[in-house]
């Protein structure tokens, strides 16, 4: 089982220590892209919520299209993981409640903090120290979801 929801490999094997530098470099690259594209900019996010600029809609749209293409390629190609296991992408669960409630929760948090979870660590790395508060509440929200998961609609 993969540790990525919806992506499963035929067998689970422990990750090697050599994978950590690769993950760190990919995360560093992602952080640089977020900063350079201004996707981590509070001002750009506010422009988007006020419908004053297309910039963030373009960034998000590009990410959605990239994700759709990648998912389609993963489903059709039979590509293998680093551990030589076949990657299978499962269909999402049916129903609307989980997506509406999850989207509303995410959107309210995004609107209040001015940042989605992706750039939190990037902004901390850039020296935006108030993001420590946002990170704390993001971790609290994750913990609360885990504690209340069985009582929430899915």
TrEMBL record:
The chain crosses the membrane at residues 20-42, 54-74, 99-121, 127-148. It holds the Pfam family DUF6691. It comes from the Bacteria. InterPro entries: DUF6691. Keywords: Membrane, Transmembrane, Transmembrane helix. This is Transporter. The lineage of its organism: Bacteria, Thermotogati, Deinococcota, Deinococci, Deinococcales.
């Amino acid at each position: 089982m993969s540790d990525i929801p919806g992506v499963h490999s035929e067998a689970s094997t422990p990750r090697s220590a050599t994978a950590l530098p690769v993950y760190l470099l990919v995360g560093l690259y992602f952080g640089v892209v977020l900063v350079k594209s201004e996707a981590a900019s509070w001002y750009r996010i506010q422009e988007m919520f006020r419908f004053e600029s297309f910039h963030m809609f373009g960034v998000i749209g590009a990410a959605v299209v990239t994700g759709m293409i990648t998912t389609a390629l993963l489903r059709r190609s039979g590509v293998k993981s680093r551990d030589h296991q076949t990657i299978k992408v499962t269909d999402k669960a049916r129903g609307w409640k989980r997506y509406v409630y999850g989207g509303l929760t995410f959107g309210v948090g995004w609107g209040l903090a001015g940042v989605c979870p992706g750039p939190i660590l990037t902004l901390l790395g850039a020296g935006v120290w108030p993001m420590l508060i946002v990170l704390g509440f993001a971790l609290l929200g994750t913990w609360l979801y885990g504690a209340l998961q069985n009582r929430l609609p899915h």
